[in-house]
């Protein structure tokens, strides 16, 4: 992986900005810092100002694991072209099937994890997140969650940052959402910024589409060819995109 903000890679952003490029972002851990209480997550004021300015220069979308109403509320006032929730399922006709699947999964998994302290279930409607940030023994909690979800049918089980996400296996994902926006907005290329396993579906598209895939935090096994060192560098990336909009965009 290469640092996107390293001086030798600034030309990558210059080339990207010359055409009609779609900018797409995850929310938690990407636009907003990870916090102990997910309900308290929010953009830093500087990030909000920069993203607002960037969205006036480029078509921008957010593709979040939160439900759509939740994440959209946290982005009020920013001129985004679209906000996707539930890892790309919202808006989608697959929402109803996802809700039914989540109810089945909860009925199965909750009794299996009653003995594990510090676990929090987050029913997002079409997906289910099982947080273990509050557990005193996080490795043991993760092991218990993975065991409890191992036999769930029609579920994708993805490990995030101190969370395990359960997604309907056949529902749209973040990669599907990104491709739909590329077509709808008639963009020639895209930049996608994300931070964990749920973003790897999008990163994989960089092998066959004009996509600049960027991961927050370096990870050798990621399919993203570029990275930012930390979530704090997101502001620097947004500022660099603004600079390029002044010099490279037609």
Average pLDDT taken over every residue: 92
Percent of residues in beta strands: 15-25%
Query: Portion of residues in helices?
Result: 25-40%
Helix-strand pattern, N to C?
Answer: EHEHEHEHEEHEEHEHEEH
Number of strands: 11
Structural class: alpha/beta
For the largest beta sheet, what order do the strands appear in spatially? 1-11-10-9-2-3-4
Tell me the domain tally: 2
Number of helices: 8
Poorly predicted residue ranges: none
Which term fits the overall shape? Answer: globular
Predict the CATH topology of the largest domain. Rossmann fold
CATH superfamily of the largest domain: HAD superfamily/HAD-like
Under CATH at level 1, the class of the largest domain stands as Alpha Beta
Biggest pleated-sheet summary:
7 strands, parallel
Give the termini separation.
30 Å
């Amino acid at each position: 992986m290469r640092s996107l903000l390293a001086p030798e890679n600034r030309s990558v952003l210059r080339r990207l900005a010359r055409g009609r490029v779609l900018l797409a972002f995850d929310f938690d851990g990407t636009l907003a810092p990870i916090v102990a209480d997910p309900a308290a997550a929010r953009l830093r004021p500087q990030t909000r100002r920069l993203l607002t300015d960037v969205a006036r220069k480029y078509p921008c979308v957010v593709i979040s694991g939160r439900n759509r109403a939740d994440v959209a509320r946290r982005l009020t006032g920013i001129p985004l072209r679209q906000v996707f929730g539930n890892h790309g399922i919202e808006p989608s006709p697959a929402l109803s099937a996802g809700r039914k699947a989540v109810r089945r999964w909860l009925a199965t998994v909750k009794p299996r994890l009653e003995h594990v302290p510090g676990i929090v279930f987050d029913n997002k409607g079409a997906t289910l997140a099982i947080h273990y940030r509050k557990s005193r023994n996080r490795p043991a909690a993760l092991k218990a969650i993975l065991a409890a979800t191992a036999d769930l049918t029609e579920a994708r089980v993805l490990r995030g940052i101190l969370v395990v996400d359960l997604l309907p296996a056949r529902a749209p994902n973040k990669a599907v959402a990104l491709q739909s926006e590329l077509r709808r907005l008639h963009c020639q290329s895209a930049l996608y910024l994300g931070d964990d396993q749920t973003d790897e579906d999008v990163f994989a598209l960089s092998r066959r589409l004009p996509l600049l895939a960027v991961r927050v935090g370096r990870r050798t096994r990621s399919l993203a060819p570029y990275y930012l060192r930390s979530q704090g560098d997101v502001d620097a990336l947004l500022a660099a995109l603004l600079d390029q909009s002044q010099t490279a965009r037609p």
